[in-house]
């Protein structure tokens, strides 16, 4: 029977043409829902730590910060500038570094100078607000001993030096 059926010609013409409605389906709500499931929120503002002891040399500073939340962070943006009473000086320029860790050592700084630091966190959803600003200070340059003014006797010695820093130094330690 199958062989006979397959030999017959079959007329597949439809007597009436189907009419399809042209519908526009709005998937915007579904798309928003799907996007909200897969997105992560922008991070909260990081918290910058105060300067730690021994975190400075005459030309570098180690700055650390952290997060109080479990935010997803791809990188941090560390900004800094020298603290100065003068306005519009070239040294007032802000510097920005992109950092992956929660710490950074900044080099090529001026000795015995205050720098203001702040940091933001970022991920695919956006950038956090900046942290509070923290002031760090580089170590002073070693003083210059005035060789011509050195005097000594049996029980004493007079040693004179001068600071090479523009800003005043709080104290000196003399080692014998």
Automatic annotation (TrEMBL):
Entry-linked Pfam families: fn3
**Domain Fibronectin type-III, chain residue ranges per copy:** 46-142
Domain of life per record: Eukaryota
Q: InterPro entries per the record?
A: E3_ligase_FN3/SPRY (IPR050617), FN3_dom (IPR003961), FN3_sf (IPR036116), Ig-like_fold (IPR013783)
Q: What name has this protein been given in UniProt?
A: FSD2 protein
Upper classification of the organism: Eukaryota, Metazoa, Chordata, Craniata, Vertebrata
Please state the gene responsible for encoding this protein: Fsd2
